[in-house]
Design goal:
Order of helices and strands: HHEEHHEEEHHHEEEHH
Shape: globular
Structural class: alpha+beta
Number of helices: 9
Number of strands: 8
Helix content: 40-55%
Radius of gyration: 18 Å
């Protein structure tokens, strides 16, 4: 909010508002639906993604993803939460011809993906509820959880088990599992995920990969 930003930055509200309006005009920040809260805008998100893709850090996490794909035989990716969606930071594809292709920069919904449900489950209850109340729970397949009660129960299970699952909820015939990447404070800042068509893996076999994914996420 303007008041919190002013307090943290020690800038008068009137001056800060002029700065925020200039940043908003250029897409570096944007307002939430309540019009009182500011968050990162698409221009800044795009700049962050390009920076990550061209830094030494990207080579390190791409090497980790390659090792995962070699071990598991399926597509693995690194995602983060961005503007109420799952943002793909990087992805290494399996060599199998049957696969789902989504490149870095692609966005997918929160409510029906393994990474998305993990990010929602890791939020505090106030932020989670605020996001769920304004987020369209669009049906993608017959498995998609489209009501708040069912989705909330699923998020509680996700929080307890420590990983997110997509049981053909985003694309029919595709399943996925995601584990958190945490910063030094223990906050979930990204996710490492693995996708597979049900023709090669069932959900139980994919869940057996949790420990391997968690080692990669450290």
């Amino acid at each position: 909010s303007l008041a919190l930003l002013s307090d943290h930055l020690h800038i008068p509200k009137a001056s800060l508002m002029r700065l925020l309006q200039a940043l908003e005009d250029e897409g570096y920040v944007q307002r939430e639906l309540d019009r009182q809260t500011f968050t990162l805008g698409p221009t800044l998100s795009s700049l962050s993604l390009r920076t990550l893709q061209h830094s030494g850090l990207s080579q390190r996490y791409r090497a980790v993803l390659r090792q995962l794909v070699q071990r598991l035989g399926e597509t693995c990716n690194l995602t983060t939460l961005a503007e109420g969606t799952v943002l793909y930071l990087d992805r290494v594809e399996t060599s199998h011809p049957l696969r789902m292709t989504l490149g870095p920069g692609a966005r997918v919904p929160l409510h029906c993906t393994a990474s998305g449900k993990l990010f929602l489950a890791e939020m505090n209850q106030r932020d989670q509820r605020a996001l769920l109340e304004r987020m369209p729970l669009t049906r993608q397949t017959e498995q998609t959880l489209c009501d708040l009660h069912s989705l909330s129960a699923e998020l509680e299970r996700t929080k307890r088990q420590g990983y997110g699952l997509d049981n053909e909820e985003f694309i029919r015939g595709m399943i996925a599992i995601a584990v958190p990447v945490r910063n030094a404070h223990g906050d979930c800042v990204a996710a490492v995920a693995c996708h597979s068509p049900t023709a090669r893996y069932d959900l139980g076999a994919l869940m057996a990969c949790v420990s391997t994914l968690k080692l990669a996420a450290v």
